[in-house]
């Protein structure tokens, strides 16, 4: 099943890119079209070619690539984006090519083009507009029960909608929200402001656990990332509920699916209250 990249997929992608790009000089940086979801910076080629990569990191679902020129390239994988290392061939959906001094070729492949590429100054990255109102990293020290309780206080929206709101917590998407709510035993439709502190504690632990397990699974696939297509960031996982409508939940109940606004929610009515 093709999935949209969320935090663990981006984390794994960045780790894979780091293995090839860290401390490398970029000998060729070639956008092959003018835009993805929005225009690719016209000076990307000029500012990145010849630069040395000094660091790679992740914020929410964005990958950050820093160079010794004080620039930072920020990419988002959208719905279908993926990086490939030394792909066997270059096709119509390979929209950005990067070559390194050590002879590797990287391609950003994105058939649906909902991804993005931007370039900012490294010392001003926090002012990049998607980041300015973004909540804390779910695996970082600023995310926790007290913070989450304060953010959800008085909220009548569903807990699922609240967790997808990037201003409350960054980087969560449909898959890991469904998984964490199942692990915590909380119904996705429950009003966000009416969840007790002990249950929020379980939720925070569940969010950290589902993300960490996915990152570990992704990391283990990276060790043999020499897949024929060189594709990074996607790995097969065993979901608790996601994509498992009609199949058994761990509790013995049956996973159900409901659709709101075109988005599927998978949950178990027996153990999620
Ligand atoms: Zn269940």
- Low-pLDDT segments: none
The second-level CATH architecture of the largest domain is: Alpha-Beta Barrel
The SS-based structural class is alpha+beta
Bound molecules: zinc ion
CATH class of the largest domain: Alpha Beta
- The quaternary state of the protein chains shown equals single chain
Give the end-to-end Cα distance, rounded to a whole number of Å. 28 Å
Number of domains: 2
Summarize the structure.
This protein is an alpha+beta fold and 273 residues long. Helices cover 27% and strands 21% of the residues. The chain is globular and about 55 Å long.
How is this structure best described in words?
The chain has 273 residues and is of the alpha+beta class. The chain has 2 domains: 7-132, MutM-like, N-terminal (N-terminal domain of MutM-like DNA repair proteins), CATH 3.20.190.10; 145-267, Helicase, Ruva Protein, domain 3 (Orthogonal Bundle), CATH 1.10.8.50. The chain contains 7 helices and 10 strands. The protein has helices at residues 7-21, 44-48, 129-132, 145-152, 159-164, 174-184, 197-222, and strands spanning 26-31, 53-59, 62-67, 71-76, 82-85, 94-100, 105-109, 116-121, 256-260, 263-267. The strands form 3 sheets. It has a 4-stranded antiparallel beta sheet. A 4-stranded antiparallel beta sheet has the order 2-3-4-8. A two-stranded antiparallel ribbon has the order 9-10. β9 (256-260) and β10 (263-267) form a beta hairpin. α1 runs parallel beside α7 and α6 (174-184) packs across α7 (197-222). The site of zinc ion (ZN) has 6 residues, from loops.
């Amino acid at each position: 099943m093709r999935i949209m990249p969320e935090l663990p997929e981006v984390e794994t992608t960045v780790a894979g890119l780091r293995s090839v790009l860290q401390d490398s000089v970029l000998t060729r940086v070639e956008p092959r079209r003018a835009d993805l979801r929005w225009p690719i910076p016209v000076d990307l080629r000029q500012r990145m070619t010849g630069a040395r990569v000094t660091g790679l990191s992740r914020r929410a679902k964005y990958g950050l690539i820093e160079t010794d020129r004080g620039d930072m390239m920020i990419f988002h994988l959208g719905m279908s984006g993926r990086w490939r290392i030394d792909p066997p061939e270059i096709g119509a959906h390979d929209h950005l090519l990067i070559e390194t001094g050590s002879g590797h070729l990287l391609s950003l492949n994105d058939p649906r083009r909902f991804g993005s590429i931007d370039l900012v100054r490294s010392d001003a990255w926090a002012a990049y507009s998607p980041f300015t109102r973004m909540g804390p990293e779910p695996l970082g020290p600023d995310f926790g029960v007290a913070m989450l309780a304060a953010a959800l206080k008085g909220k009548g929206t569903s807990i699922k909608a609240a967790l997808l709101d990037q201003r409350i917590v960054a980087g969560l998407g449909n898959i890991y929200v469904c998984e964490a709510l199942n692990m915590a035993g909380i119904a996705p439709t429950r009003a966000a402001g009416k969840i007790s502190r002990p249950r929020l504690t379980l939720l925070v632990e569940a969010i950290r656990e589902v993300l960490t397990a996915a990152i570990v699974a992704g990391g283990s696939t990276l060790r043999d990332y020499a897949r024929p297509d060189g594709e990074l960031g996607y790995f097969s996982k065993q979901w608790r509920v996601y994509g498992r409508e009609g199949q058994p939940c761990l509790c013995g109940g049956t996973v159900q699916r409901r659709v709101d606004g075109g988005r599927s929610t998978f949950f178990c009515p027996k153990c999620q209250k």
